[in-house]
Amino acid sequence: MAYSPVTPHWTLYSMQDPDYDDFHNPDASDHEGAFDAQLSLPLSVDGPPAPFQTVVKRDGRHEPFRKRKIAEAIFKAAQSVGGQDRDLADSLASAVTIFLTKRLEGQAPTVDHIHDAVERVLIQMSHAKTALAYARYRDRRGRIRRLRQGDMRQLLGELEEARTERESLGGERGRVLAVHATGDELTQWDRARIVRALERETGIEPAVAEIIAIEVEQQIERAHIRTLTSSLIRELVDAKLIEHGLEEYREKHRRLGVPLFDAERIIRGTSGETLAQDPVATDQALARAVKKEYGLAQVFSLGVAESHLCGDLHLHHLDRVDRLFSAPQSPETIIRSGMGLPGSPDFAAPPNHAPTLLAQLVKSSASLQGFFSEPMVWKAVNVYMAPFLAGMDRSELKQFAQMLVYEFAYQSLQSGGEMTDAEIGLCWNIPASIATGEAFGPRGVSLGKPYAAFAHTAQQFAWALVETIREGGVHGVTLPAPVLAVQIGAAFFKSDGCDTFLEHAAGAAAEGRRVAFEFPREMLQAQGEVALLHQVSLNLPRAAYISGTETKLFEGLKSLVSKAVSAHLEKRELLEGLLDEQGLRPLGLLSRPRVGKEGLDLYQACSLVAIDGLNECVQVLIGNRQLHETEDARAMGERILAFLAREIYEQGERSGIRTILAQNNDLRVSQRFATLDAQAYPKTAATTIKADENTQALHYTTGVRLSASHGLAPMDAVRHEGRFHAHLAAAASSEMPLTATDLLPKSMADFLKKVHEQTQNRRVVFRG
Fold it and tell me: Residue 237 contacts by C-beta under 8 Å, 6 or more apart in sequence?
């Protein structure tokens, strides 16, 4: 039977595809007849063609035909020219389906068949604007496809032809565009600059760069923009790279910076980090924001960066990504070599007098701080300076101690937000590793006798330093720096006057002054021996939420440690590029050997994999019991630490980097982990996350410490924490609250003696 285009044949469409429901109903026949009349398709067939089920893709694959995709494409094209009728788009898609079925007699259409049909239907149904928009979309997608396939010569020809056509039709090619460049100047628009920048920054093929540049130029012309900024141009280029699927080049081309809103708050001092700060601090805050973005975008891999952003781990000091973490310093280096500046030869000879030595020590501390993220640590200062102080009476030593303390305090106040609360190591007894070594005095000359010969002067100077710290500043205010770190080892209690000095130092701590007490143990304390490259902290509570059991926790921690080791390798690669012995690169000064000291060797340095929230991790796994509550909880904590110490060491060995277990001591990291977990695991984290009583800020228990609400006697608390310190190779520290106003120095000194004798604790700091 001959087919008549005006005769309804609704039975042609079956229920084989749900997209054709509107044609299954006899009421739809009116639509079909209407479309037939307008499309003018006098097809003659012996019977109704079978409906097609699939579409042939460009690579030959068959995929299910979906009319809704055609409707979506038509609707988007209509929206671009002001259309809002979604039902009409559906009806037009039905018309396209009818057209294809009759034209191809049931054969599966290709993608190009469908595109051609859409354009023809839109035009014949009097939707010319939508048809034009659809054709432009189709053309653009075709260019993108050919670009990805490498057909760039044809694309360039098409784009140039289109531009010539626009100019011949009175386009705005003659219009002069001004560009506000980054060098504070207005320049004339030049498309070639985009091409050169893309080639230089990303390594993209020149022809591809030319295509991107032409499309950006067309977009700017269509938008009628008169003045451009270099940042806007870069954003437009980045958008085109994404549009063409060139994400890897977009990553290399992206611009780092601070949003205008954030910059405004930083410069005006209304952000948290620049509140009550001077313009120097705002300079540094802006620079740190860019460095942080650079670290996440360029230094660390995507997997590591995402782990940081989501809170599985924390990359410390991203805003100082181009620095080492820390390294102990010895005044003896200054005594023997003098003082040098980055990129220049030594400009100051070895000191000849005590005031000169002090000036060089303070200036060196300020200079070296620029190479490290953590505050400077100076070892055994009273011992190494003793040869310069021999012969001074108590009054002179006290005056010199005041000069040293006030200089470091002033440096901290003038830091502009930098971390400059330097740590001054004090040794009442001269450590065996130093005692028998030859002492060096003025001009860096050997004095022909060991440092042990200056023990009395070293003790007097240590006493004067503690006394100065106890007195504080004007009206007794606690000075911001330095921190005095008193070494208490086995030999300490065998030296004359040790009890009196310990009570003296404990008294300073009882008064809220910045004094720490260190207990050297036999196990290596890495921060006292070698440079530290970087620290990555692991979110143990989250690992427990995910695993649920101790066995599964260990499996999850293996993967987490692997991420941390990868981060350290990536950080080391960056630092390698910043070192050179000529001092021409940013970290060059550290590469230069000095008298009695070799230059920095990154492959001998250590990297810290720190842990945070051990208390909450155990609490999740053992049934809501915390470390201070049961022996089972503490035993589990030790098993976790032992596993991590071994895993961190072994993975580091396999990767060729020295990695060691440490603890996080930064409360801000504990707060960040808790805040992120409260959002990601609200039900699970609700019973474990802690909140500050005063600020209500969420946090985990920092590092391997006990919960602040443990309620234990101080000695029991440090004993428990000391068990965990035994598994750590670095950064082990306990904080003891000063809850009473009438703490007696004698009682605190007795407490510190018991810590040394009865625990494995490494460091105790008292907090008011």
Answer: 194, 198, 212, 213, 216, 253
**Paired strand residues for 612:** 539
Contact partners, residue 473, CB within 8 Å, separation at least 6? 409, 479
Separation between Cα atoms, residue 650 and residue 748, nearest integer Å: 40
Selected residue with higher pLDDT from 446 and 597: 446
Give the H or E element holding residue 238. helix 230-243
- The three-class DSSP label of residue 387 is helix
Q: Bigger pLDDT: 311 or 17?
A: 311
The alpha helices in 370-454, defined as continuous H runs, are: 381-389, 394-413, 432-435
What does the pLDDT look like over 391-417, one tens digit per residue? 999 999 999 999 999 999 988 877 654
Residues facing residue 659 across a β-bridge? 607
pLDDT at 305: 92
Burial 438-461 (b: 16+ CB within 10 A, else e): ebbbbebeeeeeebbbbbebbbbb
Q: Global pTM?
A: 0.74
Nearest Cα neighbor of 53 from 104, 2, 125 is 104
Strand ranges (E), 572-677: 606-612, 658-663
Question: Is the distance from CB of 577 to CB of 585 less than 8 angstroms?
Answer: yes
Q: Which two tokens stand for residue 156?
A: 């360039």
> How far is the C-alpha of 294 from the C-alpha of 299, rounded, in Å?
7
Q: What angle do CA 247, 253, 254 make, to 5 degrees?
A: 90
Is residue 98 predicted with pLDDT exceeding 60? yes
According to the model, what pLDDT value does residue 343 have?
A: 46
Interior/surface letters 232-243, b for 16+ CB within 10 angstroms, e for the rest: ebbebbbebbeb
User: 519 is written with which tokens?
Assistant: 């207990």
Question: No. of H helices and E strands in the chain?
Answer: 30, 22
Confidence of residue 518 (pLDDT cuts 50, 70, 90): very high
- Candidates 577, 499, 565; CA nearest to 534 is 565
SS (H, E, C) 277-342: CCHHHHHHHHHHHHHHHHHHHHHCCHHHHHHHHHCCEEECCHHHCCCECECEECHHHHHHHCEECC
Q: CA-CA distance, 272 to 265, in Å (whole number)?
A: 9
More confident residue, 74 or 129: 74
What does the block give as tokens for 133?
A: 């928009």
| Alpha-carbon gap, residue 28 to 34, rounded angstroms | 10
